[in-house]
Specification:
By secondary structure, the protein is of the alpha+beta class. It contains 6 helices and 5 strands; from the N terminus they run ααααββββαβα. The protein folds into 2 domains: about 90 residues, Winged helix-like DNA-binding domain superfamily/Winged helix DNA-binding domain (Arc Repressor Mutant, subunit A, Orthogonal Bundle), CATH 1.10.10; about 60 residues, Dna Ligase, domain 1 (2-Layer Sandwich), CATH 3.30.1490.190.
Length: about 140
């Protein structure tokens, strides 16, 4: 995982300035351990850095996405985009429709889809975002189903 010192070095290496908003957004993403909307990130950033506005948060997120350091996901039809630290495509999202919990699952299905598209359709994928909706084990247990 890239820490605060590493993010500063990485930004400089790639020709970007290390700014207070970028550090603050990175710190929130690192500590979050989950998926946050840009507004939730801005709220947490604002708690530590009151002068950082929502536009700065969006610009930082866009840069981190461009540098493959953060990942934007839509985890439901009506959901706002959610952000997290970047992870390999093989980590896909399991979204509980009852409690809203989001879990990463690691498996071979994404690699299989990528290979199927390459061999069967001559299509080379850049990114695959797989989100599976359903009911989590805790919600199933709570309902006795």
């Amino acid at each position: 995982m890239v820490d605060e010192q590493d993010i500063a070095e990485l930004l400089r290496e790639r020709g970007h300035r290390v700014t207070r908003p970028r550090r603050a957004v990175w710190d929130v993403l690192r500590r979050a351990g989950g998926h946050l909307t840009a507004e939730e990130i801005a709220e947490r950033v604002h708690g530590d850095q009151p002068g950082v506005n929502l536009a700065s948060v969006y610009r930082s997120l866009a840069l981190f996405s461009e540098l493959s350091l953060a990942r934007e996901s839509r985890l439901g039809d009506a959901e706002a985009s959610r952000w997290e630290l970047a992870h390999p495509d093989e980590h896909f999202h399991l979204v509980c429709q009852r409690c809203g919990d989001v879990d990463h699952h690691v498996g071979t299905v994404v690699a299989e889809v990528r290979e199927h598209l390459r061999r069967g359709h001559g299509f080379l994928t850049d990114d695959i975002e797989l989100t599976v909706t359903g009911t989590c084990a805790d919600c199933i247990a709570a309902t006795g189903a």
